[in-house]
């Protein structure tokens, strides 16, 4: 608390700095405030000094006797004793950085632990640290006549103060030194300068994957009217949740043992697309009043993108394709949290806990939260009975549970539901949002990837140009007639969910057209993962495919035979079945690079034609009127 005289000094200094910022003369400032003109600029510069909280000092620097910089000793160490040693230990650490590095390493290795005492934090293990500190001083060339070896207690109290200061620089370092297993509250500052606090919806979203705690079964139809069910592995639930409103923006169920970068991008794609509620077949299952997804309840949130994307350090999250789509297509920042710190993403972790309590742990076949969970033991006692939860039923239950979660009041939102919170920001506050560009909405294919290849062929042997891509040959009518392209490098864009067609560009970025797979591979839709599985089984001689057999159907039959023996085979069989069932009758080629516009496609159409193709032109070429509709035109 400042005295009355100190308050008068502070007010005079504050007024002097304010007048100096208004560019008044120094003599006029001195006449008005009484502050000497020679000290006005020094007070102004003190206000600009950084504070320990990360901001500038501001008017705090004008408080009488307030220090804006830590004390730095300039004088050399005098005679031994306790007097005249202010700042000498800090000076020692500055001269020998190895000593401070020793203190930091001992704290990180937990050889020195911070405990809470009655009068403040205390250090456990200080004696051993002091011995190692003195040994390092001798190794650095200090003698018994030098500080701290010359002191009576050899600097142990200064070492304790320095170790406490280093351990308590931040809450993270203090919690680590105290061996805390949980760090709740607050936010971690972002090193990239991107927003670390969600001030409105779509500022920050969190992503994570969770293995559903339920044993499941799938059903295959062997003969017409006869069904056979098999156990499958536990599935992954990938979810994106908005931090400000707690609303789930999109989710994806993955049947693989581990989710891949393609599954992450599929979740991103589903969070951007407008949501359509799936049809419900379970009797009595219905959505709660007002339930749904943000993009379905608020059409203006369709294709809305976020500013920050938080995830953990899983390999699928850190893949190049994942980061490329997030930064280049979505246009957001990607923030990977520290290892083994789920509390850095508290909202998505809390959502998974809520979903498990209201859905997974209430279903037959639940695995509980661990091996000691009573619910797991109860299910294991009845392991001889078949589980009655099917995968299709779980998908419907998950859709209803997530839609109802968005319509359930949250205590952290003041009793509002996530959808009501979104309605407040969108309808009442009318916040500014970013949307995916219109050209990209028409070709929303976040799963397309780039692959480098070469055009093969031989003029001497009469082999027309083709491209080999993961064990299959691709060509088209236009590519097969381009002998000048043999041996040229190309860029291939493909969709991992259906690799029957590719889009090809030459080295200069000109589109060469769409090519299709040849042979039996073109009969049934399949993913890149399925083709690689088939090729691996063929190399291992576990799967035999004749010349005219459909490789995909042979692969499905192989998985069905092994579904009763291995749950992983049953999971793969169900995944492959859904790919074939949901595929479009005619495969669509990926759009290719974003910057490729219509002028690139015209170059492909203007490829040189051969005389024997029957398409030669004779006579003058007449121009045709273009039928370009009115509206906005995007130039590339």
Automatic annotation (TrEMBL):
<dbReference type="InterPro" id="IPR001584">
    <property type="entry name" value="Integrase_cat-core"/>
</dbReference>
<feature type="region of interest" description="Disordered">
    <location>
        <begin position="567"/>
        <end position="636"/>
    </location>
</feature>
<feature type="compositionally biased region" description="Polar residues">
    <location>
        <begin position="624"/>
        <end position="636"/>
    </location>
</feature>
<dbReference type="InterPro" id="IPR036397">
    <property type="entry name" value="RNaseH_sf"/>
</dbReference>
<protein>
    <submittedName>
        <fullName>Integrase</fullName>
    </submittedName>
</protein>
<dbReference type="InterPro" id="IPR012337">
    <property type="entry name" value="RNaseH-like_sf"/>
</dbReference>
<feature type="domain" description="Integrase catalytic">
    <location>
        <begin position="197"/>
        <end position="426"/>
    </location>
</feature>
């Amino acid at each position: 608390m400042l005295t009355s005289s100190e308050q008068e000094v502070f007010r005079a200094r504050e007024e002097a700095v304010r007048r100096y910022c208004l560019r008044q003369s120094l003599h006029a400032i001195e006449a008005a405030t009484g502050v000497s003109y020679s000290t006005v600029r020094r007070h102004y510069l003190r206000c600009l000094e950084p504070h320990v909280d990360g901001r500038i000092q501001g008017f705090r620097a004008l408080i009488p006797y307030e220090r804006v910089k830590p004390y730095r000793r300039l004088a050399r160490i005098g005679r031994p004793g306790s007097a005249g040693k202010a700042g000498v230990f800090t000076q020692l650490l500055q001269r020998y950085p190895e000593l401070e590095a020793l203190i930091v390493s001992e704290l990180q290795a937990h050889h020195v632990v911070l405990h809470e005492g009655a009068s403040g934090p205390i250090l456990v293990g200080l004696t051993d640290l002091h011995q190692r500190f003195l040994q390092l001083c001798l190794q650095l060339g200090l003698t018994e006549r030098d500080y701290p070896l010359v002191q009576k207690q050899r600097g142990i109290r200064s070492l304790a103060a320095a170790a406490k200061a280093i351990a308590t620089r931040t809450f993270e370092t203090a919690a680590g030194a105290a061996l805390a297993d949980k760090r709740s509250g607050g936010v971690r500052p972002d090193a990239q300068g991107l927003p670390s606090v969600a001030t409105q919806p779509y500022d920050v979203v969190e992503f994570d994957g969770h293995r559903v705690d339920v044993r499941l079964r799938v059903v295959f139809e062997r003969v017409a009217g006869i069904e056979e069910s098999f156990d499958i592995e536990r599935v992954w639930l990938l979810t994106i949740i908005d931090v400000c409103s707690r609303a789930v923006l999109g989710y994806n169920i993955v049947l693989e043992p581990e989710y891949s970068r393609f599954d992450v991008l599929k979740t991103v794609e589903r969070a951007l697309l407008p949501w359509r509620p799936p049809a419900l077949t379970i009797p009595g299952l219905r959505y709660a009043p007002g339930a749904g997804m943000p993009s379905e309840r608020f059409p203006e949130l369709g294709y809305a993108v976020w500013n920050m994307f938080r995830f953990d350090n899983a390999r699928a999250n850190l893949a190049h394709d994942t980061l490329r789509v997030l930064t280049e297509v979505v246009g957001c920042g990607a923030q990977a949290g520290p290892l083994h710190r789920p509390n850095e993403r508290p909202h998505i972790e809390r959502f998974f806990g809520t979903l498990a309590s209201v859905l997974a742990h209430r279903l037959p076949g639940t695995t509980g939260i661990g091996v000691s969970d009573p619910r797991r033991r109860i299910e294991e006692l009845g392991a001889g009975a078949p589980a009655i939860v099917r995968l299709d039923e779980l998908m419907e239950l998950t859709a209803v549970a997530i839609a109802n979660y968005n319509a359930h009041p949250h205590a952290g939102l003041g009793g509002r539901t996530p959808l009501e919170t979104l309605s407040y920001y969108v309808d009442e506050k009318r916040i500014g949002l970013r949307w995916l560009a219109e050209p990209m909405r028409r070709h929303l294919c976040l799963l397309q990837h780039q692959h480098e290849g070469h055009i093969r062929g031989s003029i001497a042997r009469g082999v027309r140009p083709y491209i080999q891509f993961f064990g299959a040959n691709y060509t088209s009518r236009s590519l097969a007639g381009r002998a000048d392209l043999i041996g040229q490098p190309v860029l291939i864009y493909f969709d991992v969910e259906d690799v029957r067609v590719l889009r090809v560009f030459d080295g200069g970025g000109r589109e060469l057209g769409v090519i299709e797979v040849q042979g039996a591979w073109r009969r049934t839709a399949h993913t890149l993962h399925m083709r690689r599985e088939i090729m691996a089984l063929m190399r291992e001689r576990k799967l035999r495919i004749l010349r005219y057999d459909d490789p995909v159907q042979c692969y499905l039959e192989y998985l069905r035979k092994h579904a009763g023996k291995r749950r992983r085979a049953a999971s793969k069989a169900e995944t492959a079945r859904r790919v074939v069932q949901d595929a479009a009758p005619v495969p669509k080629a990926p759009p290719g690079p974003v910057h490729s516009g219509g002028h690139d496609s015209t170059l492909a159409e203007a490829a040189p034609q051969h005389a024997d193709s029957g398409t030669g032109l004779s006579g003058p070429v007449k121009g045709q009127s273009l039928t370009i509709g009115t509206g906005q035109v995007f130039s590339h």
